[in-house]
Amino acid sequence: MSHSSDPSDPSDPSDTAPSADPMLSRARELALSALFCALGITVPILFHVVGLGRTFLPMHLPVLLGALVLRPPMAMLVGVLTPWASMLMTGMPPLPMAVIMCIELTVLAGVVSGARALRAPVWLAVVAGIAARVGVTWIVTTSLAGYLNLPPTGVGLASILAGAPGIALQILIAPAAAVPLSKRRPSSQPSAGTEEG
What we know:
Elements: H1 13-16, H2 22-49, H3 60-67, H4 72-90, H5 97-117, H6 122-147, H7 152-162, H8 164-182, H9 192-196
């Protein structure tokens, strides 16, 4: 049943949705993409300063949060560019890890953003994205281990378990951040608040 829009109602989509102007919407999305790419460079630096780098997967978190806001093509672009921009500016991650992370983050961002575009709940989109990323990690690491004559299963498991604290951090933070981030979501994607209600 239709009802009149109440400007004082925080759940009113007209109060939080970006402008329908396609040029303005595209400019906002480009700015957000640049922001999350920059966070993907700076957040790992902060984690490495306190010695929590690889364990907490700090580059993954900004890309994941960006995928909650951006449409799939831009979310995946952030996943592709962030490791390379970080490598050029800070030297981390080094080759060949930059290549592996490029693949991982592209899959993570694409699955999360795609699931949200299909109106999946935030928690399901996040879990699906992390599961897909873990699958990629398993395939890549076991393949490299076999090439280097190392035990594939052991190397694959070690690689995944090493990032377990980071996975837990992503599962905890992403749903909590979904509601404020939904206010920056392009209007063609679902609002996190309505999905989580």
